[in-house]
Amino acid sequence: MTAIASLPQPARVDRAERTRQRLLDAAAQCFASAGYSKSTVEQIAAAAGVSKAVVYHHFRGKEAVLEVLLERTLTDWARVSNLDAYLTAGAGVLDAFERSLRSSLDYARKSPLLRSLFQLDPSVLLGLGNSNAVQRSMAEARERMVAAMRGGLAAGELRGELDPERAADLLRLVMIALCDHLLFPQWIDASDERLIATCVDVLRRGLRAETPR
User: What is the chain's mean pLDDT, rounded?
Assistant: First the structure.
């Protein structure tokens, strides 16, 4: 019996997971520096310090690596811009939205992988829009935003005639557009703090009840 085969099951699982995470980290570095399209499985393996066979042992191929990386990125992105966390901390819905927006932009600004996908592989990014990870993340974000809008209406913070679903879609549209232009600043510089502050101010004025309860 080999040394690997004699390892207790939890130890083998931990070792496999560490290798898997090392491969994902290596792939993220490759995609960020050269782009997804120009990166190869061989380069990912070399960056991780393993053989090409090890990559295929954990993933079906480069596309599968990107899918898992995207899901991990979306999970981290949702965590740092979690609207519920700001609401739980006692912020009103408009304050919570502003904090969530700024956290989301900050994450996008600091993510080499996201910047690479937007700037080096936009066609790949468009194809990923239909992935299960993206669809699930978008649906969950919308659900949280609609719930926040309903809470703001119930608390009298928002204008009573607002449609919570349409208001939530408007806020999400602004967040998506700003992140899009931040990562691919062809026409609008979404890193401009004055632009962000103006967006927030206009939205606050449009959504806020005239005489909050």
Answer: 87
